[in-house]
Design brief:
Blueprint lengths: L4 H39 L7 E3 L26 H21 L4 E7 L7 E9 L5 E10 L5 E6 L7 E6 L4 E8 L10 E6 L4 E7 L1 E2 L1
Parallel strand pairs: 1-7
Antiparallel strand pairs: 2-3, 2-9, 2-10, 3-4, 4-7, 5-6, 5-8, 8-9
Length: 209
């Protein structure tokens, strides 16, 4: 064994060994911090609840119920012609009202059924006086989660969708503006979607009321 072997061990090998150990410990520490941060981001929302209760938007168009002829008193001595004229007038008024009131859509949320992610409640569109539309979630409740968004989509995989913004709260009544010219017959599925992990929490299929 060389005489200077002990000196080299102290001055060369030991510093290298210590440096290697420190580098490994640093990598492990960074990995732990990253995993911990991701876990906190992903899991912490599941243990929190948020609630909102927004009113129906101002300017909402409410379709009046068209009642039958029993709402109009017809005297027994009225002629059949007068009765027919009144019925014709009512039909014309009903047809005119149906032309001026936009079509609305409605559906009910169904969770994905995996025991973790869920969404329940009603979804429907509200036409406004300015010809725009609002999506309203009512009696809504979902599992909370990270980075949740409300989409109008063509399917449950969010392959083609309109982003209505972040979910305001995981419980309660809430409104979302629908961009102009959105084809609701095409984008007829409301998704509660985790954008960060690409996970569906629940969906509602909209159909005409």
């Amino acid at each position: 064994m060389p005489k200077d072997w002990g000196l080299k061990w102290k001055t060369d090998y030991i510093p290298k060994l210590c440096g290697s150990i420190m580098n490994k410990l640093l990598v492990i520490a960074v990995a732990v911090i990253i995993v911990g941060g991701v876990s906190t981001f992903a899991l912490s929302p599941y243990f929190t609840e948020s609630t909102i209760d927004e009113a129906i938007p101002t300017g909402a168009l409410v379709q009046s119920e068209i009642k039958g002829s029993d709402t109009i008193a017809i005297n027994q001595d009225d002629t059949m012609m007068e009765e027919e004229e009144m019925k014709d007038t009512m039909m014309e008024e009903e047809e005119e009202m149906m032309k001026t009131i936009p079509m609305s859509y409605a559906g009910r949320f169904v969770g994905v059924g995996d025991g973790i992610h869920d969404a329940q409640g009603d979804a429907y569109t509200i036409p406004l006086e300015d010809t725009s539309n609002v999506l309203r979630l009512e009696n809504f409740k979902s599992t909370n989660g990270p980075d949740l968004y409300v989409y109008l989509s063509t399917d449950e995989n969010a392959s083609d969708f309109v982003n209505l913004g972040t979910l305001k709260a995981n419980s309660g009544n809430q409104n979302y503006e629908i961009p102009d010219d959105t084809d609701l017959s095409k984008y007829n599925k409301v998704l509660i979607w985790c954008k960060a992990f690409g996970v569906l929490f629940g969906s509602a299929e909209l159909s005409t009321k």
